[in-house]
Amino acid sequence: MARKRKTQKQWLQMIRMEGNPCLATRCKPISDPVLEQEIINDMVAVLGYTKTGVGLAANQIGHLHRIIVFKPNKNIPGFFVMINPEIVGRSNELTNRPEGCLSYPGITKNITRHELIEVDFKTERGAMCTSKFHGMNARIVQHEVDHLDGFCLVGAK
Ligand SMILES: [Zn+2]
Fold first, then answer.
1. CATH second-level architecture of 8-148?
2. Is the backbone of residue 21 left (phi > 0), alpha (psi -120 to 50) or beta?
3. How far does residue 149's CA lie from ligand 1's centre (Å)?
């Protein structure tokens, strides 16, 4: 079935904003490759259209499954996709830095995160992976996994 093409504005309007119940929902694991790809395509389109966004969780655009997409490095094009990410290791070292969120525009908050994390996840191609992330990438993954668990420290009162 042909998908109706969306305008940039329509893609960006998919982002659920403060108060939307999707943001307070704990997302379910996913194991349907067709649905995974549909969700990933939507997420990449939306994140690609944002000027400032570096990461997106599926429930931020209304898909209540455990998928995150992020831009791993400002200088490198492309997106990093994780299906069913689970943080399995965390460094004792913490860093406190400002964070923003596409669902809470105009707000930045200093948030303490683990500097280094180890994450189990499935890739877009279906491979099971364990990878380490540090610094900004670790911060983004921790932020997006919070979303999948139904909360966001940037938006927390
Ligand atoms: Zn966010």
1. Alpha-Beta Complex (3.90)
2. alpha
3. 12
How far is it, in rounded angstroms, from Cα 26 to Cα 29?
10
How far is residue 53's CA from residue 115's CA, in Å, rounded to a whole number?
A: 20
Structure tokens at 156: 């927390």
Give yes or no for a contact between 98 and 112, defined as CB atoms under 8 angstroms apart.
no
Is 18 an annotated catalytic residue? no
Instruction: Determine the distance separating the centroid of ligand 1 and the alpha carbon of 1, expressed in angstroms.
Output: 32
Per-chain residues with Cβ under 5 A from ion ligand 1: 101
Q: Tell me the pLDDT tens digit for each residue of 63-116.
A: 999 999 999 876 777 899 999 999 999 999 999 999 999 999 999 999 999 999
- Measured between alpha carbons, how far is residue 100 from residues 42, 70, 108 in Å? 21, 14, 5
pLDDT of residue 76: 74
Question: Which pTM value belongs to this model?
Answer: 0.94
